[in-house]
Amino acid sequence: MIKRNFLPLFFLLITLITVDSQAQNKDLADRLFKIHPTYREQALTQRRFKQKDILPLIARRQGNAMYQIEKVGESFEGRTIQMIKIGNGKKKVLLWTQMHGDEPTATMASFDIFNFLEGKNDGFDDLRKKLLDNTTLYFVPMLNPDGAERYQRRTMQGIDMNRDAAARQTPEAQILKGLVDRLKPDYGFNLHDQSPRYSAGRSPKVATISFLATSYDYELSVNDVRQRSMQLIVGMNKVLQKYIPGQVARYADDHEPRGFGDNVQKWGTTLVLIESGGYVGDPEKQYIRQLNFMAILSALDKISDNSLTKEKREEYYDIPENGRWVYDLVVRNATVRQAGKSFTSDLGINRNEVSYSNATKFFYYSKIEDFGDLHPQYGSQELDATGYTIEKGKVYPTAYKNVSEISKLNALNLLREGYTYVRLAPDANTRALGLYFTTTPLHILRSGQAAPSGTPGLGNTATFILKKAGKVKYAVINGFVHDLDNFNAEKGQGIVE
After folding, report:
1. Most buried residue among 13, 265, 310, 466 by CB atoms closer than 10 A?
2. Contact at 8 Å (CB) between 213 and 189?
3. Under the phi-then-psi rule, with left for phi > 0, alpha for psi from -120 to 50, and beta for the rest, what region is 120?
């Protein structure tokens, strides 16, 4: 009788099953990514929307048998906060967005998910049935509507409600704690946006999506509840790598005793924090919105069939930590002249958003935020200024009555002559207060506003020229680079100050 060792065959079979499962997960994620445009909520096309923009989207679902819509409280200013329940499964999932009012990416993705769950006959009916039979989803879109009204992080009280889980001084925090206590969700998704200048580790790649399996104690312990968070994140990271390779990061897991994520984890709910960061060329975060749609639905699929347990928690620690290594623009190796001496320096420039039109729109105001040796840092855009001398531009001698007159000037000719600044006349009809912008690539000075003196440096508005052999090659106006040999007047934003 011949004895055979079936153990290697057994392990081979397990390996094949695991590989096949991973392939199916990636195939599902790919299909979800591709179907997203079909279900993208067309009423939300830019990120500075307010509660009044989503209320009709909620109201149109009133009376639809697949939803239960409940008022769960009011904000400090009396705005109604609603919860949308979908599904009838045993596994309860609570998802909340915009606890910070200026972090709306996942709110957009949530309405895309609602549209998807309402769909049919598109190849996803089995997934929908699986999700709705096995899970009950509780969405709270825009938990901080007062902050969203102003496009600000904090609540109307000036409190960061993500640091209000313990004291609960805000009504919004009281609402969220009440829901956790009442629903006792098995899983929670704390959905945020982060600065678009975080890097994925020490790299030039912007962290487009960042995760955190929040810690429930200072010892950073890992129990079954937190382990599931790590496993879910590992699964989402795998499917995201196809679309943003090297651009997924994680936060350091230091315990924050006031944080909702940390406390929800401590209260027994498996909590995943997702942060939508930056992606070059996507200022309105519409591509990142698509990634949220895909990643969240993929995670819900893993929750619904418990396949998340196949992920290895150790791989969570392989995801690089968020770093602060990226500026919007880095100018490298510019020659600087000061006090009759020359040296080379790098400039780190960031384009900061300034709200206007009741915070529904924004323009950029750019500052030089670092100066010196920046070789450990990177720029989402970089300009090699080796051999070029940096100078402040000149002020054009003619003053103009209004910005419209200035917009008719030949900006390219002015920049070639070294003029970056144009002054408004004392009686100019301009906005009385504050910064403003212009589509003309020039830096406009109001009457009485002094032009910067000396070499552009730390803290200055990022407006200057770069010259070689007496010729202006580049003009940087309000942090946007203009190559004068390949000039595009539509590119960038001028500034009025």
Report:
1. 265
2. no
3. beta
**CATH class of the structural domain 21-323:** alpha beta
Task: Judge whether 202 and 322 are in contact, CB under 8 Å.
Answer: no
* Tokens linked to 74: 């009011």
Task: Provide the sign of the torsion angle of the four alpha carbons 357, 363, 367, 373, taken in this order.
Answer: positive
Three-state DSSP class for residue 26: helix
Q: What percent of the chain has pLDDT over 70?
A: 94
Q: Is residue 6 predicted with pLDDT exceeding 90? A: no
CB atoms within 10 A of CB 153: 16
> Mean pLDDT across the chain, nearest whole number?
93
Instruction: Say if CB 354 and CB 360 are below 8 A apart.
Output: no
> Distances in Å between the alpha carbon of 383 and those of 203, 392, 412, 495?
17, 17, 19, 21
Of 222, 186, 237, 208, nearest in space to 25 by CA: 237
What is the C-alpha to C-alpha distance for residues 375 and 332, in angstroms, rounded to an integer?
A: 9
In the chain, domain spans: 21-323, 326-496
The predicted-structure confidence for 446-455, as pLDDT tens digits, reads as follows 988 888 888 8
* DSSP secondary structure code for residue 461 in this structure: B
d(CA 464, CA 479): 9
d(C-alpha 225, C-alpha 186), whole Å = 9
Measure the CA–CA gap between 1 and 66, rounded to whole angstroms.
Answer: 62
Q: Which two tokens stand for residue 394?
A: 């000149």
Tokens of 19: 């590989």
Tens digit of each residue's pLDDT (9 = 90 or more) over 382-403 = 999 999 999 999 999 999 999 9
Contact 253, 215 (CB under 8 A): yes
Instruction: Quote the crossing angle between the two packed helices 224-240 and 7-39, to the nearest 10°.
Output: 70
pLDDT tens digits, one per residue of 30-78: 999 999 999 999 999 999 999 999 999 999 999 999 999 999 999 999 9
Q: Which residues contact 324 (CB under 8 A, 6 or more apart)?
A: 197, 198, 199
Alpha carbons 37 and 233: distance in angstroms, whole number: 24
* 409 φ, ψ (degrees, to nearest 5): -70, 160
State the CATH architecture for 326-496. Roll (2.30)
SS3 content of the chain, % helix, strand, coil (to 5): 30, 30, 40
CA distance 439 to 437: 7
CA distances from 461 to 90, 367, 373 (A): 56, 4, 19
Q: Is the pLDDT of residue 20 over 80?
A: no
